[in-house]
Design brief:
Number of helices: 4
Helix content: 40-55%
Number of domains: 1
Structural class: mainly alpha
Bound molecules: zinc ion
Radius of gyration: 15 Å
Shape: elongated
Largest sheet: 2 strands, antiparallel
Strand order of the largest sheet: 1-2
Strand content: 5-15%
Distance between the termini: 47 Å
Order of helices and strands: EEHHHH
Length: 96
């Protein structure tokens, strides 16, 4: 195991293999954001990247990369009531 500093929150964390740029907590938060993004894109096909940015807080360039890069197909998240609540909250915002 090696140690790296998270580029996002600055926390030092241990990793094996190639160093990931962010710690597991930040990675998890990012995956959850992308998961919410995916649910929104599936449910509301007409939303623009600007709308998605407003609802999820994910930067527009990341939204475009995620959609265009096919990263939407598989996002590793642990489904939980908390995550489901965040999805529902985002859906409510998207409905306006
Ligand atoms: Zn972090």
């Amino acid at each position: 195991m090696n140690q790296a500093r998270c580029k996002k929150c600055g926390q030092v964390f241990a990793f094996a293999g190639l160093p990931p740029p962010v710690c597991p907590a930040c990675q998890k938060a990012r995956n959850e954001q992308l998961y919410i993004l995916r649910m929104l894109v599936r449910e509301f096909k007409g939303l623009s990247a600007a709308d998605l940015n407003r609802i999820t807080g994910v930067p527009v360039n990341v939204i475009l990369q995620t959609i265009q890069g096919g990263e939407m197909d598989y996002i590793p998240v642990e489904e939980s009531p908390e995550l489901e609540a965040k999805v529902q909250e985002a859906m409510a915002k998207a409905r306006g």
